[in-house]
Amino acid sequence: MKNKNSFIPIVLLMFGLSSCNDFLDVPSETNLTSATFFSSQTDFEKAVNGAYMPLRGLYASGANAATGSWLMGETHSDNTRYKYSPNYRATIDQENINDFMVTPTNTAVLNKWQGYYSVIARANQILATIDGVTFDAAKKSNLKGQALFLRAFSYFDLVQYFGKIPLHLVPATSLTDVSLPLSEVNDIYNQIIADATEAASLLPAKSAQEAGRATSGAAKTLLGNVHIVLKNWSAAESVLKEVVNSAEYSLVPNYADVFSTTNKNNSESVFEIQFRQGTDGYSSNFIYAFFPMPISATELTATMAKYGVAPAALASLTQEGYNIPTTDLIADYEAGDERLAASIGTATASGVDYPFILKYLHPHTTATFTDDNWPVYRYSEVLLFLAEALDEQGKSTEALPYLNEVRDRAGLDDVISAANLRDVIFHERRVELAFENKRWLDLARTGRAVDVISAFGAKVKANPQGYYFPAGQQPVPASFATIDLTFPLPAAEAQLSPYF
After folding, report:
1. Is residue 57 scored above 50 in pLDDT?
2. Which run of H or E residues covers position 285?
3. CA distances from 483 to 35, 147, 442, 452 (A)
4. Which of 191, 292, 344, 346 is least surrounded, with the fewest CB atoms within 10 Å of its CB?
5. Roughly how many angstroms between the first and final C-alpha of the chain, as a whole number?
6. Does 320 fall in a domain?
7. Which of 98-112, 164-178, 363-377, 382-396 has the weakest average pLDDT?
8. 136 within a domain of the structure (yes/no)
9. Across 36-111, where does the E strand assignment appear?
10. pLDDT tens digits along 241-285
11. Number of domains within the chain
């Protein structure tokens, strides 16, 4: 698919063969096709497993850190920065996302686009064929619900980051199917709501579902999130109360334990991306992109040992660190907030102390093959979403218990007054959900992005050493000049489509 012209002979051949004898329409008995593969419950179970798979690539780091969703959700905000390395200049795309200089050729942008459309394509194949195959009705509902959830989840992320995008709802069988016009944002949201609503009706509760898979609670939380973004406050309140009243979820008493690798898919987990340490391709590794670099093996060993981690095969990290907490974020934690020590630690790199994301540092056997899952939705966010939905309807007094349930777990006093509750909830989301890819989307959806990031960018330029630039180095003049609310459509995809 590198050149549109390369499709022409294939398409002509396809249409030419279609007029030949009927025997050409018989599915191959030796090669797997959609006609021969999707014929049993087991086949659909395998297909649904495959639909989840691209999510690991979207949330992990890999050899190329540009695959991390955290680049567009966290570093593209005032929560985190990169530690500029003048000796490692192979990372311009990541820096440009942090500096608000994103172009259509940015690899992280392309990776997000391709990753989610891979999920969508796999979900579409399942949804197009599952009703035509007979097997256990409950199993079918579960599998169909998971596919609908994954498609809705993928489109929701894409529309928030890109705006107008192509809306693929059936498997592509021709060049026409591959290249679709950009759909209006409202049409995309309508489809997301339809998919998430149907998924919620088909999926089992968390207590009846295999750990790590989408549930009715996850679909309802997604639906509540969509309504929050669209400012459908009453609809958000209704569906989020269903999650709360289900009694399927509760806050883990100790904040740090929420993220422990010995406590995956816990009572607070609504949906998280599954990883497993080891060399079989299922491990995570984002913490190794988050350390300040360059950092020697000795310094890395000492830092990890300080937090009870001692993997084998540690080596120096010599590239450039990302997602390093800003002093602005650190200052936003209230005195006594137990989440600060659970979320942010200190690492010594090249003899200098830097903050780093402690939330994702846990014991693992071998360096770079970590066991951490990535939290997408937690019950604490459900509570904060519900508080926001109530406050926006003038029900501030009703909102306070949900907000305070989150604060109580953090060791903080209850909020008593409903004055300026919108800002209080916004602040609470920042510290409760730090480093979970929420900050940029929160800034954009609440209309704060331009003001907050413009002020933040001015601070970075005025004091680059305070934002991890070495002496004598500073951001390029064009950084933070334009604060766009959506990312550009990938140039590599534009070359394959006449519509953008």
Report:
1. yes
2. none
3. 48, 35, 15, 10
4. 346
5. 16
6. yes
7. 164-178
8. no
9. 80-81
10. 999 999 999 999 999 999 999 999 999 999 999 999 999 999 999
11. 1
Residues 6+ apart with CB under 8 A from 486: 161, 162, 163
Peptide bond into 294 cis (omega under 30): yes
Taking residues 346-371, report their average pLDDT: 97
Between the alpha carbon of residue 407 and those of residues 231, 391, 428, 449, 467, the distances in Å are 24, 17, 8, 25, 29
pLDDT, residue 34, reads: 60
| 449: its two tokens | 């992005």
Model-wide pTM > 0.70: yes
Identify the weakest region by mean pLDDT among 106-110, 176-180, 194-198: 176-180
Q: Is 374 helix (H, G, I), strand (E, B) or coil?
A: strand
d(C-alpha 319, C-alpha 297), whole Å: 13
Residue 380 within any structural domain of the chain: no
Domain that holds residue 363: 287-372
Specify if 156 maps to a domain. no
CA-CA distance, 433 to 206, in Å (whole number)? 22
**What's the mean pLDDT in 317-342?**
97
> How many residues appear in the chain?
500
Which two three-digit tokens encode residue 329? 């974020």
Residues with Cβ within 8 Å of 213's Cβ and at least 6 positions away in sequence, in order, are: 52, 146
What is the pLDDT at residue 276?
96
Of the pLDDT bands very low, low, confident and very high (cuts 50, 70, 90), residue 175 is: confident
User: Angle 72-147-231 (CA atoms, 0-180°, nearest 5)?
Assistant: 55
Over the range 160-182, which residues count as b (16 or more CB within 10 Å of their CB) and which as e?
bbbbbbbbbeebeeeeeeebeeb
Given a cut of 80, whether residue 4 has pLDDT beyond it is no
Give every CB contact of residue 211 below 8 A, 6+ residues apart in sequence. 264, 265
Q: Locate tokens 């004091």: which residue? A: 463
To which H or E segment does residue 15 belong? helix 7-17
Residue labelled with tokens 């501030």: 396
335 phi and psi angles, rounded to 5 deg: -60, 130
User: Is the CB of residue 309 less than 8 Å from the CB of residue 363?
Assistant: yes
**Residue with the two structure tokens 């009870």:** 308
CB distance 345 to 358 below 8 Å = yes
Token code pair at residue 391: 């406050």
